[in-house]
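Batch 3, record 17
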Amino acid sequence: MDQHETTRRDFLKAGLVTAAATALGSGIVKPVGLWAATPNIKGPIKIGYLTVLSGTLAGYGEFHKMGALMGVEEINAAGGIAGNKVELEIRDSTLAAPACIQNARYFVDSWGADFLAGVDSSGQALALAPVVGELDRVLMVTHAATEKLTEDEVFKKGIKQVFRICTPTYQDGNAAAFVAKDLPVNTWATINPKYEYGYTTWNMFKDTLGKLKPGVKFTAESWAPFGTTDFRPHINTIMDAKPEGLYSVVWAGELITLVKQAKQAGLFDKIKHVMFPVGAAMDVLEGLGPEMPDNIWISGRYFFLYPDSDRNKEFVARFHKRWNHYPAYVSETAYSTMYAFKKAVEAAGSKETGKVVDALAGMELDSPAGHRVFRKEDHQAMYEVPWGLTKADPKYPFKIMGKQIVIPAKEFFNRPPFEGPGTHPPFKDSK
Amino acid sequence: MLQSLVHVCLAGISAGMFIWLVASGLTLVFGVLRVLNFAHGSFYMLGAYLCFAVLKAMGGNFWLGLLLGPLVVSMVGYVMERYLLRLVYHLELPYQLLLTFAMVLIFDDLVKMIWGAGSIGSPAVPGLSGSVSIAGREFPVYNLFIIAVGPLVALGLYGLLEKTWWGRIVRASASDREMALSIGVNVPLLYSGVFMFGAWLSAVGGALAVPYVGLLTTGMGEAIIISAFIVVVIGGLGSLKGAFLGSLIVGLLSSFGTRFMPMLDMFLTFGLMAAVLLWRPQGFFAEG
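Prediction for the assembled complex:
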């Protein structure tokens, strides 16, 4: 409800700034000429955002919201998209597919959304893809990570309206395997989520690591259902198996619980090499604070201290000033999504789905997370997020990523056509 | 193997004790008021958040949080019973479920407005934060404490209901409300009292969960209320003995399932509930 007020206020602010910027002819704002050249864009540009705002993961939705709102505020203050004001509405799509589909339909059919963005769970993304094709609106996925979305739905089935701005499971499975191959570990075990995301990442990790380091063994698996608050039975399973390494994509609050309970059980004393592919999420780092053990391998879909660029530093500073938080990875992906839409619409000179799809496919985007390219074939954004070891830093009340390893995206992203030789890492053309 | 068995048991029992703290109040309230309170899990969540709030305000004193947090929650329970539930006692069960479910959503949003939607990490309890070695593997002292608290609460409830004047009144009103009214029992007051007590029990469970789960989230109430409902169905609606044993069974089943039948762990609990519903729909320990 306050959301509407904000947009109204923003509208006025945006109007004033636009007028001023137009008068000054500032270099940042697209020149007036372009607006004249695109008379077929009739504003406002409406973006419907789908994220989880209730239940245990409601915090993720808040972080999406902060990023998306800040992006829209900035864009509107600088003249909007091709001179048109951007309107953003965010709806609670929970983590269940029906709620997500229902909201997407509402956005397009009743509210008149030009674009859709968001989506947290892999299950939701896979269910929503065909619906988006039918509704014929561009959907930019900012969080759901299953590679099946881009490999199967976009590439194989040709649902060209779907794009993804965050790293997919390649980061959690393949990139993790590249890091793991250099560790003195021959036996791995996992405590992973008992749903699509958990299965797909562990399989990818096993396949890729098996190829990179033949002879490595995978000795135990324990599958934690969504909403697990007691990881002791799972920790028991792992400690019985006595592996040298533990891999877990358990995420958000559940990862906080897992780390605390594993610590109590003495797991980190027994297992020296632990990898949490989504451990560099801000909610996890802040939630654990000093309780996060040192020397744990963590990564995410963006980490606020990488890359060391002005674009990123300014973004982090503005974000911290605006919300009194460091940006979570979903904040960055939501924020950059707004700029991706802006760039694509302005390049296409239209907000029609077909034209924007053409503009987005292959588009490059300078963003806080670095240089992104939306791969033509599967509409997956290619960019790098580092892997690193946790360490304390006096500047922050939580552990940060120490020693960072960056694996080039082209080395660990699966390649089209995603089947047959030469489509899964390791690739022959890389060292 | 022995080590594994011991730890699987310990994990199962400590998990079961949390469910017990919630299920006991749920079944007690149902037994006396005949209200199936969906928002009972919200008291668990409120207990956790208020304990945490006191803990923060009082420089990290968990015990003070455990004492004060649930007291505040029982006051919330009073308001809810006195001004909302009383309006639906005479209506059919679906109306009660709708109202109490609405309360779940309201409580969730209230917590979000006050403490934010993000997960909050919570500190360990001084004095109970370490681990002891049991059968050669570390086990948290705090979990042992929980394993002790559960049966103590059960004993306390038993004593209260079976051995005190108040307990006799409660039991009398539960079995025949009209008769209790006609012999001069202030039934509305009694209802408020029992409801507040149930809310307090659930809130104690939530407060105790703060260091155990190590995390506060909105929605933590919904997660536990489902287990509590299963327990109450298995044990028999209104039966405290059933709730205690049911909690142990569900806790152990889930722990053993995870360790030894990982692909069936969720099925085991729900399967047991389905079997109970089919063959003994009143539950194992239902009276009458």
